[in-house]
Amino acid sequence: MLLLPAAAAATDTVSNPLAQALSRAAPAANPKVLALATRALACVQRSMPAQTLSVIDYSLPSTTPRLWVFGLGPHPHLLFHELVAHGRNSGDNLADRFSNQPGSLMSSLGTFVTDGTYTGHNGYSLRLKGIDGNFNDQAESRAIVIHGAHYVSEAFARSQGRLGRSWGCPAVRAGVAHKLIDAIAAHSVVFAYYPDPRWLQGSRVLGDCGGNEVLSSR
Q1: Contacts for 34 with CB less than 8 Å, ≥ 6 apart
Q2: What is the per-residue pLDDT across 3-24, written as a single tens digit (0 to 9) for each?
Q3: Against a cut of 0.90, is the pTM above it?
C-alpha cells in the first residue's frame, strides 16, 4: 500500500498535469510515486530551474528497472528507464532499510539535486546533494553519487537473483552511466522513493516545502 502525506492529496495524477504527462511517458511507473516526485520538483523549482527529473522507486526489486529519467519543458518525455542498485545494508533483492548515517552502507530516501561531475575510483560520477533534512542531508559527506558499476546488469541479476549492491550510491549500468550522467548533470532533481511512513510524513520537501530555504545551503 502506498502511504501518502496528507498534504500530497493535491498532487494526485487526476489534478496534476505534469504527473499525467510523466505517467503517459512511463506507463510502467507507479503514478502516485510520479505525483510525489512532481511535488518535490515543484518545491525545488522555487529556488532553481530543473531541466530533468529522475525518479527511483526502491519499493521495486533490484532486478526490475526502477529508475526513470524524464526531460522536462513543454513536452515532458522519457530519457532513460534503467536498473539501479541500492546500498549493501538496505536489503537483498528488495530494499527495506534506509539511512542517512555515515558508514551505514544504506541508501537514503528523499529529494536530491545534482551537484557536479568528477572522475574517481568508480569512474565518471555525479555528486548528489540531499535537501530533505535529516533523511539525506549527509549525502555529500557520505559520497553518495551516481556512477556506473559492473554489478548493475541483466546478466548479473540473472546469475545472482539480484543486482550487486553499492555502499549507498544509486549505481547504474556501466554502459549507460556516462550518457545518463551527462543528461542530468546540470539543474536536475533526483527523487528516491520508498513507502516509509516516517519519511513520507516528515519530509519538508513533501510537506510545507521548508519555506523558501530548501536550497539555502547551495
Answers
A1: 13, 19, 22, 23, 26, 55
A2: 454 344 444 555 799 999 999 9
A3: yes
